Amino acid sequence: MTLTATGPRHADTDAPLIAPLIERWSPRAYDPTAELTDADVRTLLEAARWAPSAMNLQPWRFIVARRGSESFTLIHDALMGFNQAWADSAAALIVNIAELTDEDGKPRPWAKYDLGQAVAHLTVQAQHDGLHTHQMGGFDGARLAEAFDLREGLEIVSITAVGKVGDASSLPEPLREREVAPRSRKPLDELVITAA
């Protein structure tokens, strides 16, 4: 069964949303032949650049590595668990870094929140452009920080796989089963503490 960006993966929302949000999901099966152009990468990073941030400090940094590069291999090798089983077919891996302190050591307490917004903007832009993303938290951050010589005060928060959706049958079990399982979310009344 080949999955595409349309069809059964659309979110069943309780309110009308824009198409990139309805269509967005996090595949693990990527097309191992699809590539990102320089323009593709620039557009994704430009979307991240225009995310809001506290005091407009923009405390985010990114390492972008396309499949086949030495940097891609370094990032892939630092992934943990099942992430290594599927992420090698993504067109690119993006390391998402929060600048927790400036170069003088002054704290930036909202850095992780701001980075999250930047990555969300990147994700929605990717979906709009016919790409898919998958966020990962399973990685060896210390290994990556050393490999890329990150200064003190920079923290790797997540890694984003980006590419075109591939064939779910290429995944090992149980990932294949998870790839085609129905999408679900908690109901809003479980998420909202109070509404006036």
Automatic annotation (TrEMBL):
Protein name per UniProt: Nitroreductase family protein
Entry keyword Thylakoid: no
Organism: Agromyces indicus
Family under the similarity heading: Belongs to the nitroreductase family.
Classification via Gene3D superfamilies: NADH Oxidase
Keywords tagged on the record: Oxidoreductase
CDD domains named among the record's database cross-references: TdsD-like
Domain Nitroreductase stretches: 23-164
